[in-house]
Amino acid sequence: MINIIAGSGMTISIFFQSIQQHFGLNTITPILLVSTISGLTSAIFLIFMGLLYDRFGPRLLLMISGLCSFVAGLILNLMMFQQSWDGAKFFWYSIGFINGIGFSASFISLTPTIMRWFPDRVSIASSILMASSNAAMALWPYLIVVLIEHIGVFKAYQFTLLITALAMFIGAAFLKPPEKRVSGSGNGIDINGGGIYIDTKLLLLLIAIFFVALSSISIVQLLAPILTESLVLSGIDRQIAEKVIAPEIMSIAGIFQIFSALI
After folding, report:
1. What is the three-class DSSP state of 199?
2. Which residues does residue 189 pair with via DSSP β-bridges, in sequence order?
3. Which fold has domain 2-262?
4. Bridge partners, residue 199, by sequence
5. What is d(CA 69, CA 249) in angstroms, rounded to the nearest whole number?
6. Distance CA 143, CA 150 (A)
7. Which of 90, 101, 144, 167 is the most exposed place for a label (fewest CB within 10 A)?
8. Which of 30, 177, 211 lies closest to 103, judged by CA?
9. Which residues have CB under 8 Å from 182's CB, separation 6+?
10. pLDDT tens across 165-184, in order?
């Protein structure tokens, strides 16, 4: 459930063109840069979040992720009062940086935890995570479009950030950490001699999953503008392409990916 609610970030690209129009930009490239900043920040903070997980468990990381979303929402509140892109871009890119930290924290908090709940069924654990992320992609696009139409792009984005923060804080309060696995043999790593045993194969799998997820999310975060421009080039009205067809395609893709993750 945490992954589904927080997965609204998977569909952030739906906001991009509305923000472009708000500031009267001729190209969407400056808006898209936020995805690059977010992705690079996630990669940089991955190892640090892993160390925090090993020492303090998943609850602290969920708190960090929730705090990042909350702070990003506050920064967005400052951005919405800027009259020009020159004044707004610092806040926009700051949001990308903070969201990158939050993503790395939420990923590391949830992935190893679920895999430790299913130590003998890592494939099932991976499927659960992938299916929940894809469910978010299936559910959020239309909801975001409706929110943008009724309360505006900034308030809509702020809503997704704040509900993500709430989900993370609730998860941190109620998530029960998995039991620590202690072993003196096998192909594993005993972190700082603290009795926390991590199988090296599992560690390598987590790293691989992260970078696959990171590349996939980077593509997904650019999906709405790509779809919209492709549809417009095909002769479809821009408003229909942006508000109807692109969200439909994203939702359908999310549904198919749910089934592919569970098969």
Report:
1. strand
2. 198
3. Growth Hormone; Chain: A; (1.20.1250)
4. 188
5. 27
6. 11
7. 90
8. 211
9. 195, 196, 197
10. 888 888 888 776 655 554 44
What residue type is assigned to position 225 of the chain?
P
Side-chain-side CA neighbours of 89 within 13 Å: the count stands at 13
- From 87, 67, 88, 66, select the one nearest 76 (Cα to Cα): 88
What is the residue type of 179?
E
Q: What is the 3-state secondary structure (H, E, C) of 110-139?
A: HHHHHHHHCCCCHHHHHHHHHHHHHHHHHH
Report pLDDT digits (tens) over 16-48. 888 988 999 888 888 988 888 888 888 888 888
Find all residues with CB under 8 Å of 68, minimum gap 6, and list them. 98, 99, 101, 102, 105
pTM of this structure: 0.71
Q: Specify whether the CB–CB gap between 213 and 221 falls below 8 A.
A: no
3-state DSSP assignment of residue 221 = coil
98-112: burial string, b at 16+ Cβ within 10 Å, e else? bbbbbbbbbbbbbbb
Q: Is 80 exposed, middle or buried (0-12, 13-18, 19+ CB in 10 A)?
A: middle
Domain spans of the chain? Answer: 2-262
Per the listing, tokens 């969407």 go with 28
Token code pair at residue 198: 């991590």
Segment (H or E) for 188: strand 188-190
